[in-house]
UniProtKB/TrEMBL annotation:
InterPro entries noted in UniProt: FUR, WH-like_DNA-bd_sf, WH_DNA-bd_sf
UniProt-annotated binding residues for Zn(2+): C102, C105, C138, C141
Keyword terms of this UniProt record: Iron, Metal-binding, Zinc
This protein's name: Transcriptional repressor
Cofactor dependence: Mn(2+); Fe(2+); Zn(2+)
PANTHER family, per the entry: HYDROGEN PEROXIDE SENSITIVE REPRESSOR, ZINC UPTAKE REGULATION PROTEIN
Keyword Zinc annotated: yes
Cofactor note: Binds 1 Mn(2+) or Fe(2+) ion per subunit.
Organism: Mucilaginibacter terrenus
Length: 146
């Protein structure tokens, strides 16, 4: 069961983005905030069995539009979703951080604290965002291999 203070925080987040406080939305937020890595819709479906596929799809879409979560792709091209930083806004994500794909467990991690290089584009190009990926072994899989 989700702690009452956590539920209150999620309700305030939904209010901030002018979204109805439904049980399904609160459960999706609770599940996503409880994960250390990004998660795919099929993974969420397996955990949140009381939410049908279409409802979950709509929740993920509206959360992404509102800047609550962002989409990141794994090594197989599958969309995964991760909680955004507090700097994200509706239709304008600030998820320009390193995304790490583990080749063993297939998890996708947002490495928010990494310093990224300043990217200077050629004249005429205007970036509205970028994604940087790295792949290898996550700490858990590295320790199992050692």
């Amino acid at each position: 069961m989700v702690a009452q203070s956590t539920t209150k925080r999620f309700e305030e987040l939904l209010e901030k983005h002018q979204l109805k406080k439904t049980t399904a939305r609160l459960n999706v937020l609770s599940t996503m905030y409880g994960k250390k890595s990004a998660t795919s819709q099929p993974e969420l479906e397996s955990v949140l069995q009381d939410i049908d596929r279409v409802t979950l799809y709509r929740i993920l879409n509206v959360f992404e539009e509102k800047g609550i979560i962002h989409k990141v792709f794994d090594l197989n091209g599958t969309a995964n979703y991760a909680v955004c930083s507090s700097g994200c806004e509706e239709h304008h994500h600030h998820d320009e951080h390193l995304h790490f794909n583990c080749k063993v467990c297939k998890s996708v991690f947002c490495l928010n604290d990494m310093s990224l290089p300043n990217i200077k584009l050629p004249a005429g190009f205007r970036a509205e965002g970028f994604t940087l990926y790295a792949s290898g072994l996550c700490p858990s899989c590295s320790s199992k291999k050692a």
